[in-house]
Amino acid sequence: MEPIDLAVIGGGITGLGVARLAARNGLSVALFERRDLASGASSASSHMLHGGLRYLEQMQFSLVREALRERSELLRMAPALARPRRFLFPLHKGARVAPWRLRAGLALYDALSGASRLSTRGWTGRRETLALEPGLAENGLVGAGHYSDVVMDDARLAVAVARDASDHGAAIHTWTEVHSVHPAEGGVEIEARDALNGSGVAVIARVVVNATGPWTDATRRLLARGLTPGSPDPEPLLRPSRGSHLVFPPLTRGHGIVHLARSDGRVVFLVPFERYSLFGTTEVEVSSPPADSASRPVAEEVRYLREELASLMPVAAGAAPIAAFAGVRPLVASERSVGSASREHLVKEDGAVITVCGGKWTTFRVMARDTLAVVARRLGRSQPIAESSDPLPAPWAGAPDPESLATFAVEREMARRLEDVLRRRTNLWLEPDRGRIAAPRVATVMADRLG
Length: 451
Hints:
The chain is an alpha+beta fold and 451 residues long. The chain is built from eleven helices and 18 strands. The strands form two sheets. Strands 3, 4, 5, 6, 11, 12, 13, 14, 15 and 16 form a ten-stranded mixed beta sheet that branches. Strands 1, 2, 7, 8, 9, 10, 17 and 18 form an eight-stranded mixed beta sheet that branches. The relative contact order is 0.17.
């Protein structure tokens, strides 16, 4: 078996970013994902490409600057999947952030954006703010800051990154779980099994990248036990947290809204996405590796979000969410509480195994560059890693009938199961019927194309 340069374990945005960059730099790459592309936290985000306004409070200026630069690049690379949006940051009397402090933060956010700045910041008083968004709580409202960020379709953008990796030669294996690894001549032998057809897949890779998000610690143990049997298990790297969101019919006049939670002072977002509004997120620490139930919202989180939404927009107090979703963030372990933990990433080298974890959606290309720098050194590659800001493959833009969407999803977007199409290649899961009417038509096309 001829060794390949790189095997990537994990098909979330981090692993896909690594595979894309490696393939674009001429490396032979195979990626293994035990479920579908972006089926974990990568499709359960707040759907924002942003610098992280709240990270300014934590003095993480370099992270914010880096993320704002990446926001600009991704906006150019995927214009059909990422669009600028104006956000309001309303303040009420007694809020933990004073108006002068918010204005200073927005000025700094603009300054850190540099040449990639979107529409500039602003401020409106109480009357003007209510004219823009009449549903906001009026009692004690002082005014609102204004700034611009980017709203994106996280799952479909991740799929576009996977398509770019595949177009440049990466072999993408979805619904394929790695079950054993062994030392081999020329590198590491990886054995995996396709969960849908039962076939086995085996490769020998000179370097392995562990990019399994909240399952990083479990994967690292699997790799260590296979490659250095009898040695102590590696120390955990993560302290994961769950972030939950609720989905509502549109609640604003098109603005995103930043809310300082009345109960605990946390920053919560109301994000306009397609024809819906997303409200979140929470911060609940979970174990590493997380249990299967850890990626589902619990009643306390739903109650918290509904109460905070009612305090932000009393007119929405009785609104029933049409969906709820949660993702587990792979936060790097620290002494801080999960709510204030850094969103910076970590790249750790254990022989031929390189682990990358932490970070934020917006900076996945930075994480890929840092990881590939270690991979290149391990491979003895002297030429520098070249990043590309070429446009990503565009999503389906034709007739939105289920048959056309399903055909494109199977033939171009690596969809293999019904949920892959309904949840991550389209937004049919957010339709009033949750995609049930389209499902039989999608399934018929998939059966024909996939056998």
